[in-house]
């Protein structure tokens, strides 16, 4: 680590109140943990920056009990009052935006602007949740029976398990936590063990806010291994909802454990997102958008663009433009404001990228640009442009790295078929000025993804929409719109205010 990064990190940790982070946090204090040690690394240097003692299954139990206890009181706090507490959390995040954004950038390796963007996303969802706390609406129905009234109400569900990935160390927790909290649910957060400092910093902020508001135990953290803590959380019948972000493989395991116990899952899994560029598209716009979506966050978003479907008329020109732009992408220290692409998270990620490019060559694809590991400390690579065919095996997979597969298509119909021809279904986009083509892409016979964009890339969604995707992406929706419903239980109520007992469907049962 360079001296300046070390200084930045020390300052950041000091201001965030993180002297000696421990893993389990229950009821507003850090507990002593008994699991193995996780070492956090700075991916830009490969050097260790912190050691965190992880939770054991026993530590998980202590945290779980605190969450359960908190649920008993939190569910009775009026929703708008819960919203006030989330407002305070949002304000505290505003105050710490610079420090937390820097910490995200140091521990995850994404560029500072994206680190700050993540914290902004947390602030945005807090604001959204404050408003939502006054809008947890149920419908009322006209009863078919005289002097009867029917309506539905939404009650808090219970402690929610939130499992997050390394690539969004703080924002994805916030999508879940802010919404769950206004819905009346405590949260037990299991972050990726690759980014424990970010999680501990967020927890420290939560602890301060919740202590001041007199409601500890609503936000809880357990840093732990998948085998011990993860499995305990999945199997725990006290946890009615597991919201998880990660690979399709991980999602399958979650569904396997949570399904049989009739728990709910909200799964946001892998993507294999395509951008279609038609002959009439604004190529300047398309080039900028595709570069951000494919190279931004070093290709480590679930929404990153992995496949670029080029209509034949512009394929050569778009390829040339991208080669030029890729050559100008500044790769390096994520804290340097001029950098556009930081490192991959770790050596495994670099190797997975290299293996994928090997497979590309083996399957007859051609690496047109980049794809080399950079000879410097840290896990830096060049982003890669690859000429590929839609049916290549490697193209079906989500390699969590900046590899962009360029595939030629004849027109919008073939583009839709290729867009949909993978097992994942998260995000998709089309660049065109042809209204008919755009509407076809958005129609019921168009993109089969949870997100479909016109003239913007596949990544960088706002929190106001429901976020998630279909097929192997898991079907979950989190963040905005009416995603809150998953965090509550619906109760249909019928009240008889008459003196008769008419039965529904005209059934007679006279005694
Ligand atoms: C993720 O990569 O898991 O739409 C989430 C986006 C971000 C969220 C990505 N707002 O790219």
From TrEMBL:
<dbReference type="InterPro" id="IPR015590">
    <property type="entry name" value="Aldehyde_DH_dom"/>
</dbReference>
<dbReference type="InterPro" id="IPR016162">
    <property type="entry name" value="Ald_DH_N"/>
</dbReference>
<dbReference type="GO" id="GO:0004029">
    <property type="term" value="F:aldehyde dehydrogenase (NAD+) activity"/>
</dbReference>
<dbReference type="InterPro" id="IPR029510">
    <property type="entry name" value="Ald_DH_CS_GLU"/>
</dbReference>
<keyword id="KW-0520">NAD</keyword>
<dbReference type="InterPro" id="IPR016163">
    <property type="entry name" value="Ald_DH_C"/>
</dbReference>
<feature type="domain" description="Aldehyde dehydrogenase">
    <location>
        <begin position="37"/>
        <end position="493"/>
    </location>
</feature>
<dbReference type="InterPro" id="IPR016161">
    <property type="entry name" value="Ald_DH/histidinol_DH"/>
</dbReference>
<comment type="similarity">
    <text>Belongs to the aldehyde dehydrogenase family.</text>
</comment>
<protein>
    <recommendedName>
        <fullName>aldehyde dehydrogenase (NAD(+))</fullName>
        <ecNumber>1.2.1.3</ecNumber>
    </recommendedName>
</protein>
<keyword id="KW-0560">Oxidoreductase</keyword>
<feature type="active site">
    <location>
        <position position="268"/>
    </location>
</feature>
<dbReference type="Pfam" id="PF00171">
    <property type="entry name" value="Aldedh"/>
</dbReference>
<comment type="subunit">
    <text>Homotetramer.</text>
</comment>
<dbReference type="InterPro" id="IPR044638">
    <property type="entry name" value="ALDH7A1-like"/>
</dbReference>
């Amino acid at each position: 680590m360079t001296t300046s990064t070390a200084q930045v990190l020390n300052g950041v940790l000091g201001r965030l109140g993180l002297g000696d982070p421990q893993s389990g946090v229950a009821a507003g204090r850090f507990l002593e943990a008994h699991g193995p040690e996780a070492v956090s690394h700075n991916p830009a240097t490969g050097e260790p920056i912190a050691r965190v003692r992880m939770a054991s299954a026993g530590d998980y139990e202590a945290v779980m009990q605190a969450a359960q206890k908190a649920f008993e009181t939190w569910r009775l706090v009026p929703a708008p009052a819960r919203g006030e507490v989330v407002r305070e959390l949002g304000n505290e995040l505003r105050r710490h935006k610079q420090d937390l954004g820097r910490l995200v950038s140091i521990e995850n390796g994404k560029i500072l602007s994206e680190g700050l963007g993540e914290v902004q996303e947390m602030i945005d969802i807090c604001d959204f949740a404050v408003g939502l706390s006054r809008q947890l609406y149920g419908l009322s129905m006209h009863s078919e029976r005289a002097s009867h009234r029917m309506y539905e109400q939404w009650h808090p569900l219970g402690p929610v398990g939130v499992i997050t990935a390394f690539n969004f160390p703080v924002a994805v927790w916030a999508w879940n936590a802010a919404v769950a909290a206004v819905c009346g649910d405590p949260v037990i957060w299991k972050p990726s063990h690759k980014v424990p400092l970010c999680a501990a910093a967020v927890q420290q902020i939560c602890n301060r806010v919740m202590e001041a508001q007199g409601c500890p135990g609503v936000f809880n953290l357990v840093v732990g291994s998948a085998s011990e803590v993860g499995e305990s959380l999945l199997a725990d019948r006290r946890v009615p909802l597991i919201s998880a972000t990660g690979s399709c493989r991980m999602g399958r395991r979650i569904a396997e454990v949570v399904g049989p116990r009739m728990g709910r899952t909200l799964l946001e899994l892998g993507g294999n997102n395509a951008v279609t560029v038609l002959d009439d598209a604004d190529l300047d716009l398309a080039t900028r958008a595709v570069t951000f979506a494919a190279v931004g966050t070093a290709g480590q978003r679930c929404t990153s663009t992995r496949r670029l479907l080029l209509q034949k008329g512009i394929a050569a020109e778009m390829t040339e433009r991208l080669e030029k732009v890729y050559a100008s992408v500044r790769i390096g220290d994520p804290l340097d404001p001029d950098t556009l692409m930081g490192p991959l998270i770790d050596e495994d990620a670099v190797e997975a990228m290299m293996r994928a490019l090997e497979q590309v060559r083996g399957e007859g694809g051609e690496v047109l640009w980049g794809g080399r590991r950079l000879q410097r400390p840290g896990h830096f690579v060049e982003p890669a442009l690859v000429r590929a065919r839609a049916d290549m095996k490697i193209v079906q997979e989500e390699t969590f790295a900046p590899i962009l597969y360029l595939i030629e298509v004849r027109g919008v119909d073939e583009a839709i078929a290729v867009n949909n021809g993978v097992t994942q279904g998260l995000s998709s986009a089309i660049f065109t000025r042809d209204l008919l083509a755009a509407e076809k892409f958005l129609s019921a016979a168009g993109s089969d993804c949870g997100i479909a964009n016109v003239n913007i890339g596949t990544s960088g969604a706002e929190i106001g929409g429901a976020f998630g995707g279909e097929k192997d992406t898991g079907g979950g929706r989190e963040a905005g719109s009416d995603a809150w419903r998953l965090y509550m239980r619906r109760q249909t109520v019928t009240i008889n205010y008459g003196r008769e007992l008419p039965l529904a469907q005209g059934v007679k049962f006279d005694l």
